């Protein structure tokens, strides 16, 4: 019974029974080391009450959670700062406004590069040369070697080339915008991937060990609660036996 007499808490200095707390030698190594660093004159035989012990554990859990939240906040702030440092806005090249000349150049370049233009032009050449060679319907305005046709083809080629060049230049400008958009998009994606890697590293190196510590603390608390319940059951059984003994003793008298 002497071992179950009042014990003094090393933190609050109040007196408790042995069942209302723990000795430091029965606690975990990390928790014991923390109590030794925060309080002086602490020995393995020192006693700590349940209220102070739970306060220390809750304080440790709160510090872990705040540390993880601060780390995540710093990573997000760094990513936002990097993204805001580049004010480039991705442009939609499909919605670019074109002038009338650019629309005409695109239409002519599109038609001149099709099979329809080739077939139609071949039919035109065949009709031209046939009419001037066979004198169909008395037509004979460009005899062989078709000097007028050669002049027409030369003029057509001279006009067609600049039109196609205009369309190609505009297409090259559009390709440049597309390449710039792709570069900026890839750059932002790379920043987000780096941030994701930092978060995964933070999760592996810090948050998961913290979760394991929290689970360990929960297991310790549950073990202590189970121990207290067992001790309460033992006390209750002792009280029942004592009452039964007193009842039997009175009945005999």
How would you characterize this protein structure?
The structure is a single chain. This protein has 5 helices and 4 strands, in the order βββαβαααα. The chain has a two-stranded antiparallel sheet. The protein has a two-stranded antiparallel sheet with strand order 3-4. Helix 2 (50-85) packs antiparallel against helix 5 (147-252) and helix 3 (100-112) crosses helix 5 (147-252). It has 253 residues and is mostly helical.
Short description:
This protein has five helices and four strands, in the order E-E-E-H-E-H-H-H-H. The protein has helices spanning 29-38, 50-85, 100-112, 115-134, 147-252; strands spanning 7-8, 15-16, 21-23, 47-49. The chain starts with 6 loop residues before the first strand and ends with a helix.
Topology diagram in text:
Layout: E1 7-8, E2 15-16, E3 21-23, H1 29-38, E4 47-49, H2 50-85, H3 100-112, H4 115-134, H5 147-252
Antiparallel strand pairs: 1-2, 3-4
Provide key terms for this protein.
two-stranded antiparallel sheet; 73% helix; 5 helices; two-stranded antiparallel ribbon; mainly alpha; 253 residues; single chain
The main sheet orders its strands as 1-2
Order of helices and strands: EEEHEHHHH
Say how many strands there are. Answer: 4
Class per helix and strand makeup: mainly alpha
N- and C-termini, Cα separation: 29 Å
| Rg over CA atoms | 46 Å
């Amino acid at each position: 019974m002497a071992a179950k007499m009042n014990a003094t808490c090393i933190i609050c200095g109040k007196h408790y029974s042995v069942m209302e707390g723990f000795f430091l030698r029965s606690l975990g190594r990390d928790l014991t080391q923390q109590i030794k660093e925060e309080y002086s004159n602490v020995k393995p035989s020192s006693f700590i009450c349940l209220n102070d012990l739970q306060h220390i554990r809750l304080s440790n859990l709160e510090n872990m959670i705040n540390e993880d939240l601060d780390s995540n906040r710093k990573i997000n702030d760094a990513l936002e700062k990097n993204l805001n440092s580049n004010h480039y806005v991705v442009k939609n090249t499909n919605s670019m406004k074109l002038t009338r000349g650019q629309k005409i150049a695109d239409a002519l370049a599109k038609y001149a590069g099709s099979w329809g233009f080739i077939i139609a032009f071949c039919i035109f050449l065949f009709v031209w040369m046939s009419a001037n060679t066979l004198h169909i319907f008395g037509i004979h305005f460009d005899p062989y070697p078709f000097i007028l046709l050669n002049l027409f083809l030369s003029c057509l080629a001279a006009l067609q080339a600049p039109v196609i060049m205009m369309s190609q230049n505009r297409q090259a400008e559009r390709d440049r915008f597309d390449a710039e958009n792709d570069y900026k998009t890839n750059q932002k994606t790379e920043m987000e991937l780096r941030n994701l890697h930092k978060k995964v590293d933070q999760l592996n190196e810090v948050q998961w060990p913290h979760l394991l510590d929290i689970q360990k603390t929960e297991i310790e608390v549950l073990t202590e609660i189970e121990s207290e319940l067992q001790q309460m059951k033992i006390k209750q059984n002792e009280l029942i036996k004592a009452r039964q003994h007193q009842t039997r003793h009175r009945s005999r008298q």
